[in-house]
Amino acid sequence: MSSNYGTEAPTEAPISRPLPGAHIADPAPLGLAAFALTTFVLSCVNANIVPQTLVGGALGAALAYGGIGQFTAGVWEFAKGNTFGATAFCSYGGFWVAFWWLAEKDLANLGADGYKVVGVFLLGWAIFTAYMTVAATRVSGAILAVFVLLTITFLILAIGWFDKESSTWIKIGGYLGIVTALAAWYASFAGVTAFTFKRQLLPVAPRD
């Protein structure tokens, strides 16, 4: 009886393929920094640290850095195969462009009930941010903190605008926005320094 021992075809070693976009730098620190700075500037206005009459000074940052900068980061997240990062950065980039357009072009022409439009706008973003917060529980503690704070900030600001531009609610939302910006800057700083030092300097509580 013949034996097949030693005559079997050798098993091919699995082919190692690089991760999608492995050659692309991490765009998250850019997206977080753009979000943080723009949020910080506008929140200083909402908190009345900077006079409301100077809100126009936030519009340039909203369009160029918060809008275009974040959207660009989101596109590169698509290239890296990161659905969460792509959805977040492209969406909030769109938010800042929409805010710029609303403040620069439309808000003055909305009439006496214009505040309701802004309230609905902010409420919609609170809903979006709330379900992104659920997804953020699988990213890292640092990112989760940003999304929790941002959800609360949007809700408070929405209440403020629905309450006929209540200065109290909007001021509270402004201070919450400043805290949110600081959390986003922290996450961005952690990402940048992890790259330049080739090790994680700041804890971000990654989720497996």
Q: How many strands in all?
A: 0
Structural class: mainly alpha
Helical percentage: 55-70%
What's the gyration radius in Å? 22 Å
H and E string: HHHHHH
Question: What does the overall shape look like?
Answer: elongated
Low-confidence stretches: 1-10
Gap between N and C termini, in Å? Answer: 54 Å
Q: What is the overall number of helices? A: 6
What's the multimeric state? Answer: single chain
Number of domains: 1
Strand content: under 5%
| Main beta sheet | none
Key features of this structure:
208 residues; mainly alpha
Give a short summary of the structure:
With 208 residues, the chain is mainly alpha-helical.
Description:
This protein has 208 residues and is mostly helical. The protein has one domain. It is 68% helix and 0% strand. The protein is built from six helices and no strands. Helix 1 packs antiparallel against helix 2, helix 1 (28-46) runs parallel beside helix 3 (83-106) and helix 5 (141-162) runs antiparallel to helix 6. Mean pLDDT is 88; it is low at 1-10.
Describe the protein's topology.
Elements: H1 28-46, H2 56-79, H3 83-106, H4 114-136, H5 141-162, H6 167-196
